Each structure stands twice: as structure tokens, then as C-alpha cells.
Amino acid sequence: MNRACFPPAQRDAFLNRLLETLGRAVSQVGREETADVDHLMKDNPLAFTPNVTFQAMLNARANHDRGLSASQHFEPVDAYLSGQQAIDWQALGLQGIADYVVRMETRDAESLALRLSTLPTAVIHSVCYCLEHQPLPAALVAALHDCGESAAQTGDMETLCACLRGVGNTKGSAVGNWYTALLNDTAACGPDVLAAIAGRGWQHLEDAQRLPLFCNAWPKMRTATLPP
Questions:
Q1: Interatomic CA distance for residues 176 and 204, integer angstroms
Q2: Measured between alpha carbons, how far is 218 from 197 in angstroms, rounded to an integer?
Q3: CA 169 to CA 148: how far, in whole Å?
Q4: How far apart are CA 2 and CA 65, in angstroms?
Q5: Whole-angstrom Cα distance, residue 20 to residue 23?
Q6: Burial class (CB in 10 A: 0-12, 13-18, 19+), 114
Q7: pLDDT by residue (tens digit) across 157-199?
């Protein structure tokens, strides 16, 4: 019985490409022309390195689900985001933020919601990129909405999109209504906003009224880069 994780066709294609790469690498030992060899695996969809946020979240989730302790970066982040201790935010580790998000309980989410607007922009972005992987309580969704709208008023589209991504994995009318309002606002609904909604909040596009709005704005996506 076939117990492979990949479908046989994709598995065999990957192995064939890997063997071809290794064969060419051996044949070109000592030569300078190795660009073609490197290219064979760079464009393979099964051979990639996840970005650092994905790696941090995977590690945090794996440790939590296995009942293991969080990383050494967790306690400083917990103390900072909960307001228990004043710490230089630049000393915080992304792994600690991922650990905090994965282990976040309702009271932690409520505390984060109260502090969100006071956090440095860089911290908000990192927190949002971790939050986007799980559903959030209502208080935190509301805080992200307010933070995103405030950022939009000042022209900070990066923070707006980070907040849109942060709530994307949360079901409920609050997120859907926010997406609808932005899709109806031609001034706010630029390519980056569309990319954030499609990349992280795609489940909210499964709506009879919201989907046509998105499709009508789709041409703006030509110049956008989808989130990783």
C-alpha cells in the first residue's frame, strides 16, 4: 500500500528533478558554470524555505501541541505585551511573539487588545503576521479593526494590511463587515488591500454580496504582490 505523503506523480517528478540536479552537479565539479544546476531546484514548488514567521509559528505550534515549554524568548514578550515590564521592543524575538500568540488565552487577548494601539508599528506587524494563523476573540478583532482604520487615516497602508491579515482567519460578521466596507470604498480598496483580503481572508469572500465587490475590483490586483 502506498503510504507516501505526496501524490505519486508529484513525488516522482520531485525525485527525478532531484536526481537530475545531483547528476549535473557531479558532472560539473570544478567548473564555474553552475547556474543551470541551481535553477533546476529553485523553481520547484516542493523545494522552498518558509519565511521566518511561518517557521516561528510552526515551532511554536509544535511545541505547544506536544506539551513542551515555550522558547526562551517567550517570557520577555509576555511581560512586554501584557504591560508587566518595560522592555526595549527591539530586543524581543519573533519566536517569542509566535509562542505568545499560540499560547494566548482570553485574558491575554483582552490585554493585548488594550495595548495594541500603543505598540510600535514594527511590533504590530509581527503580532499580526502571527495572529493571522488562528481565530481571535471579539475584543482583539475590534482592536485590530480600530488600529487598521487609524493607520488608513494616516496613509499607513502596510499597517492596515497587516491588521486585515491578522483577522483573516477569524469567522464572524465583524471581519466580514470590515472587508465589505473596504471593498465598497474605492479610495481605500487598493491592490495591497485586495491582496491582504484574498491571501488571508479568502473564506470571507464566499459571500453572495462580498464576492462580486471583490471581483469588480480584481483588475487592481495586477500590480499587487500576494502575501507569502
A1: 6
A2: 11
A3: 16
A4: 28
A5: 5
A6: middle
A7: 999 999 999 999 999 899 999 999 999 988 788 889 999 999 9
13, 19, 24, 25: CA torsion to nearest 10: 120
Confidence label for 2 from pLDDT (cuts 50, 70 and 90):
very low
Q: Would you state the cell numbers that stand for residue 137, as one nine-digit string?
A: 476573540
